[in-house]
Structures are given as C-alpha cells and as structure tokens.
Amino acid sequence: MGLWADLGLPTAHAGPGRRALHRLVASAPGARVASRVVAPLDTTVRRLTRGRTATEALAGVPTVTLTTHGARTGRERQSHLLAIPCDEDLAVIGSNYGGEATPGWVHNLRADPGGVLTHHDRSVPVRARLLTGSDAEAVWDTAAAVYAGYPAYRRRAAHRTITVWLLQPAPRG
Questions:
Q1: Contact 80, 117 (CB under 8 A)
Q2: Phi, psi of 50 (to 5 degrees)
Q3: Rounded to whole angstroms, how far apart are CA atoms 115 and 128?
Q4: Which CATH architecture has domain 3-169?
C-alpha cells in the first residue's frame, strides 16, 4: 500500500462551482489574495476540525500538511499543500501560487528531505525526492487535472524553476 492510501486521501472532486473557484484563485489577483489568506485559514480550520482544511472542503482538492525542518533555523515548519497522486504515493509542487519566490518548504526539503505528512488525523514520516524531466512533466499533467490553477501558476512563474517533489514513506529503521 502506498502513501496515498496510508493517509486516506480522497480523490479530487471539482464540479462547476469548484472549477470556477480554481479559476478565480489561479488569476493573478486571486493568487495574491489566496497566498495571504489560505494558509492561516487552513491552519485555523484544521485546528477546529481535527485535520480538515478549508481548501479541501471549498475547492474539492486533496490537501496535506507537510512538516519540515527549517533550512536555517532547524525549527519545525508546517505547510499546507495540494496533494497530487503519483502512482501509489504523492507529489507536491513548489508553485507558491505562481509567485516570484520559491516557497520556504522547498528550501527546507533541499536541506533535509525528511518530513512528516499529515492528512486529517493520520501522519506518516516521509522522504522527498526531487523529480525532473519526464517524471516531473507527468506530475504537472496530473496536477492540471486535479487543480486548474497549475498551468497559470507555471506561466506566471516562468522566470524560475518550479520544483516537483515525490513524497514516499520514509524507510524504517
């Protein structure tokens, strides 16, 4: 069994209303607002609902919380990310809403590829691996089917390399 099943992640379900929300958040103004509002909202909702997120409920996309260690500080850092199915495991994309900067969690994974992935009340230690070439492109294709905003993010962030990470259960021992 893979990470997707271990965490009990749902399949993405985006009807017409949710797809409209995806397009709104994918727009440049929508992404600016979402980049400031979504993480604090998800953190609050997650705390109140034992792990659920507003993003999952409103947008119909599977979300996870990735806990990493800060590249400079070593402190635990949590990031709410969209989960992209990748065989039996999952991938995450460092799009940062198509923003100028690479998200902090990417720097953290480069420094230490270990972390903990949480969905609702389930947590799994994970190991991250940077995907490149056709492996990364396959994730991009799947990501666009899960969340309509990814192609717009990719266009807006064309000035930088947006990384794609495969997350798998960490080896035991």
A1: no
A2: 55, 45
A3: 8
A4: Roll (2.30)
Whole-structure pTM value: 0.88
pLDDT in tens, 128-163: 999 999 999 999 999 998 888 899 999 999 999 999
Amino acid at 118: T
How does DSSP assign 74-139, residue by residue?
--EEEEEEE-EEETTEEEEE--GGG-SSPPHHHHHHHH--EEEEEETTEEEEEEEEEE-HHHHHHH
Hey, where are the domains in the chain? 3-169
pLDDT over 70 at 1, yes or no: no
Distance CA 156, CA 150 (A): 10
